[in-house]
Amino acid sequence: MFALQRELKLNNVETSLMRGNAGFKRWVYNFGLELLTASWSFEDIKASDSKRLDAIKKVFTQVTMQRPEYAWMKLYPSTVYQSAFIDLKDAFSRWRKGLVEFPKKKSKKKGDSFRLYKTAGIYPVKGEPAQAFTNRVVINAGKRIKLPGLKELRLKEGVDFICSSQTFTVSRTADKWFVSFMLDAQKIPPVIHPIISIGVDLGVKVLATCSDGTFYDMPVTTKKAKIKLGRLQWHNRNKVLGNKKLKIRASNNARIYYTQLAKQHAHIASIRLDTTQKMTTDISRKAYVIRIEDLNIQGMISNHKLASAVSNNCFYEIRRQFTYKQSHYSTKVELVDRWFPSSKMCSKCGHIQPMTLSERVYNCGRCEHIQDRDENASVNLMNAPIDKVRLA
Description:
Elements: E1 2-9, H1 12-39, H2 49-62, H3 78-96, E2 113-117, E3 121-125, E4 128-133, E5 137-139, E6 142-146, E7 152-159, E8 163-165, E9 167-173, E10 176-183, E11 195-202, E12 208-210, E13 215-216, H4 220-235, H5 252-286, E14 287-293, H6 297-301, H7 307-313, H8 315-324, H9 326-329, E15 332-336, E16 361-363, E17 370-372, H10 373-382, E18 389-391
Parallel strand pairs: 11-14, 14-15
Antiparallel strand pairs: 1-7, 1-10, 2-9, 3-4, 5-8, 6-7, 9-10, 11-12, 12-13, 15-18, 16-17
Helix pairs in contact: 1-2, 1-3, 2-3, 4-5, 5-8
């Protein structure tokens, strides 16, 4: 299974509809969160979070939605509020297991998103008797998509083939709206890789250096975009996007600024994602065994001299992409122990000597082998002993 994401091409009316659906889900999520936490004060009621939320859902559908002041809720698909309760159940389940922090209220500032899905039923077909359709939506090839409960919408980039899906997630990044859906299909992985094994050293100066001599770097556009972001933040450092507690309304200039700020952040994130995706795909296509170092990302970020470069080069995201692409490209990703001296060891004779971060060339004190520091480390990662390697 894999997912597709496409950007929606919306007019003003459709954008308002998307914002309304996202606001409806946010309202229901916060409503359920408030009632659930309030129900814990009744100690005589013994029930799980799931059963409490089921009771809250009944109250919502049978009482709250029937009130005249909440008539606007009937303008939106029912699967929007149903998915909100599903998300709330999942959030509390993960919190009970200690995986995440206590669920917080949804906010407009954190972005808009909602989920739609097709329910099973019997629908008539012109010229034919009524047929029972499964709970899936057929997506035709082209630049149009029909979402369950909503009208047909346009896509900026078309779907190249006919497919089907049940669940659709609509989300907003800055001022752009996207729809993503899962396909019940498998990518056919390649049978043969040109390279059997490759070592990949992730660095600060260069994004990634491979043992076969190739290297990848972040494009210059990332630095230019970050400079533009800093300039934008400095010129608008005194703008405030309203305050509900102090009853201060946001000015139009502040709204425009925060929209520009979100677009610039999204632009930088898109550059990073595009670079890392192309890099991991290229390496996964040509090598069967991919060895990377098990880096301590949290420890590296705590160093203020390295924090910016480490965050910009997306070390953990690269590892995540290598891992999930194993099934797509039939690769095997291995992690080399973080205490393995890949940078301090000579790739020719195995001599270990101290190396500072400022030294960019490895000059072996025993065999006088001279090689680029990162390339030397990538060769050592490829040739690491089996007891220092584990599967990702």
